[in-house]
Amino acid sequence: MSDNQVVKTGLLKMNVDSLVSVLPPELSGKVTEWLNNDQNEHTRREILDLVQAQSWTELHKRLDTRIAFGTAGLRSKMEAGFSRMNTLTVLQASQGLAKYISDKFPENKSVVIGHDHRFNSDSFAQVTIAAFLQLGFKVYDLCSCSRAGEENIFVHTPLVPFSIDRLGCSAGVMITASHNPKLDNGYKVYYANGCQIIPPHDTLIAQSIEANLQPWAEAWNCATMLTNALKTGQLVDSKATMVEQYTEAVCSRLVTTTIRTSGSTDPWFVYTPMHGVGFEIFSKVVKKAWNLQENVDYLCVPEQKCPDPEFPTVSFPNPEEKGAFDLGIALAEASGISFVLGNDPDADRFSAAVKVHGKWKQLTGNELGFLFANRVWQVYNDQPIEFKECNPNLALINSTVSSQMIKKMAEVEKFHFEDTLTGFKWLGNRARGLEKEGYYVPFAYEEAIGFMFSDIVHDKDGIGALVMFLQMIWDWKNQGLSPVDLLKDGFARYGVFQEYNGYYIVPDLSLTNTVFTEIRHSYQKDGLKFPAKLGDDFEFVTFTDLTTGYQSDTSDNLPRLPVDHSSQMISATLRPNNSGFSSTDSVRFTARGSGTEPKLKVYIEAMSSTKERSKTLAKEVWDALKIYWFRPDQTGLTTTF
């Protein structure tokens, strides 16, 4: 779907009635409802073409269910149909969201809207704006096309929560599918606290959407509405102001190291925005912070510099994916550079690769998380006494599937640590909660290369992470160190942590529930609340089931993290009981169903005295889980790990 020209009903020159008359009875009402509500020429034609081709199975897939609204908002493939991302479903979601926020904040009806460069992101943003305008909201548009001569205006995702905080808005929407495949798009919702929504808001918004499915009177009259609202001031072109304030905030709050090159050195790092929106804001920030300039201080991968929704040089626009950094590493090799830095397409995530002893190593999310935490800890310690008196209670947090190395660091260095459920909706909101309790929470992360610096936003921010990492590189360079040296120092002080993360492909989403049900039956049939052993080599020490609501090491056996009966998640710690390992060795794992992909994900981390022992332990647990729990030869799960 690439053409979203909205037309008035009746312009489509096809005999709709005769086509609908051939439909099976169970599809007739659904197709009629779609055609009555959708005024987008392309998606109307898409449904009619399926009717004409008598593609009943495909029509059932498109129309039988409605795209689910959850804590991640909306995300799906861009196609016609109630179960897909398209102008109508975005319009309906926006009407429900606008009504919900209007009821919650009747005295502050204001919202921020932004979008990335993906196909249809601009038109999805326009119908979103129109919905809020119809309820009397003041809309701060980060991608307004009102500026003469400017086209293809877009922003990086962190600018939306940043703008909510700065403007005091009651909500925000970012149209983006982040690092998903090119035919996907998404609708990410932020609440008045600048964080992604958490329960019960998701359920209540979904109910409001269901109550507001009928397009409102002016819903399809977007162009006229936006033009008039700009004239009256109800719609505000806000990008320039917010970009300036964001740039100033990053430079004043995150920059503590002076980098002076002024062309006196050759380019010392390579940057890639992965065909996304990152270069524009990245180049502004590093120029203001240190006057760094492209082709003088850094190189940008030319094939990936400009926003391109086709993502032509990568099979999957995710910096974590194998091969995504290949062009950057090739450019660095040819230029004698040892660091490649990159963002995902909407620039809210960050990754880095480093050349050490002649070999390239892409740092994992957990390795980057420790390096950032170590930097934040050092910066905090170097603060004047007045700052520490105002911020006496340092706290760092990460997601429960991320490394426990920060937890160990907190125990040694005597600061507060907590973990949360997976996702920055939980990390951001928990940081806000801790701040209300008197803690200073400058950093949070999760292993999927997401890093939050809450002096800027309470969400992941790939540009903030990049600015922090550049300072770390500069300091390491002056000290003759590399990130690998810092990791070794951390292992020596806090223990050697090594991970083995992987996933199983789930051919049928219902299979995830079946597999977890069989796992529980394997020990419950013996009258146990949790398993005693995993094979012959590992004993369970702690066990937490966030689906059923059980935790073995709390006084009342109730989990300290939120329980969700609709999703599958088990975490446990194990102790090896074979002679090859020490009694102090341990392994922690989490297995969970993915909320956005047909995957069953497994996160394993081992701690031992050496890197080799930790790696061996983690891999042995993967193998044991594969044999005794996931049994791909019997369950139908598949994996390449």
TrEMBL record:
Keywords: Carbohydrate metabolism, Cytoplasm, Glucose metabolism, Isomerase, Magnesium, Metal-binding, Nucleus, Phosphoprotein
Cofactor or coenzyme needed: Mg(2+)
Localization terms from the record: Cytoplasm; Nucleus
Tree of life domain: Eukaryota
Domain named Alpha-D-phosphohexomutase alpha/beta/alpha: residues: 67-212, 245-353, 388-494
GO molecular-function term, one example from the UniProt record: phosphopentomutase activity
Coiled coil feature spans: none
GO aspect biological process, one term: guanosine catabolic process
GO cellular component term, pick one: cytoplasm
Enzyme kind, highest EC tier: isomerase
UniProt catalytic activity: alpha-D-ribose 1-phosphate = D-ribose 5-phosphate
A Pfam short name: PGM_PMM_II
Keyword Cytoplasm: yes
EC number, UniProt record: 5.4.2.7
CDD domains reported in the protein's UniProt record: PGM2 (cd05799)
Family of this protein: Belongs to the phosphohexose mutase family.
UniProt-listed PANTHER family: PHOSPHOGLUCOMUTASE 2B-RELATED (PTHR45745:SF1), PHOSPHOMANNOMUTASE 45A (PTHR45745)
Record's protein name: phosphopentomutase
